[in-house]
Amino acid sequence: MVVNPNFAGKSAERGGAYSDLIGEMDYRVGQILDAVKAAGAEDNTIVVLSSDNATVPTLPVGAFAGGSNGPWHGDFSTPPYEGSYRTLAMIRWPGHVSSGVVTQEMLAATAWLPTFAAMVGALNLVPKDRPIDGINASALSSYGNLC
Predict the structure, then answer these.
(1) How far is residue 20's CA from residue 54's CA, in Å, rounded to a whole number?
(2) Are residues 31 and 87 in the same domain?
(3) Rounded Cα gap, residues 90 and 99, in angstroms
């Protein structure tokens, strides 16, 4: 975890290096969204921002520590506990996914393929000749959580 020098040391009083990384990530995601908009693809592009692991709250202050795994046991370094896998995700798809909706529904990363295939009307294109380790969770859209 290395922050670009343009962002290093900018958040010393708000979490240090961890906050510097979050600040840079926010800026970089903004650059990506600006490029999608400039390409004229804003309304037909699904953007997902997700992590692959939970936080590491046990690191010493000043290191790349930050966040909380809430009541769940485990962290980035201690799988297979639930706290090592629960993490956030955000979806942006203008006209299809409502902005500002927050849900506590759980979705495994392996569900992205069948879920997005269903959301764009291409579930029939998900391979049937092999196991697909995920489920179509597009039914969450029936109450506005996905689309």
Answers:
(1) 18
(2) yes
(3) 10
Q: Which amino acid is at 118?
A: A
Q: Both tokens of residue 6? A: 């343009």
Q: Which domain, by its residues, includes 56?
A: 1-94
Same domain flag for 82 and 108: no
Q: Are residues 89 and 125 in the same domain?
A: no
The pTM score is 0.74
- Regarding whether 103 and 118 lie in a shared domain, the answer is yes
Is the same domain home to 107 and 41?
Answer: no
- If asked whether residues 48 and 23 sit together in one domain, one would say yes
**DSSP of 64-127, one letter per residue?**
S-----TT-S--TTSTTSGGGT---EEEE-TTTS-TT--------GGGHHHHHHHHTT-GGGS-
Report the half-sphere exposure of 14 (CA within 13 A, side-chain side).
9
Name the burial class of residue 116, with classes exposed (0-12), middle (13-18) and buried (19+) by CB atoms within 10 angstroms of its CB.
buried
- What are the tens digits of pLDDT across the range 17-69? 778 888 999 999 999 999 999 999 998 999 999 877 777 765 554 455 566 77
Three-class secondary structure of residue 16 per DSSP: coil
Q: Indicate the residue type of 52.
A: D
Number of domains in the chain: 2
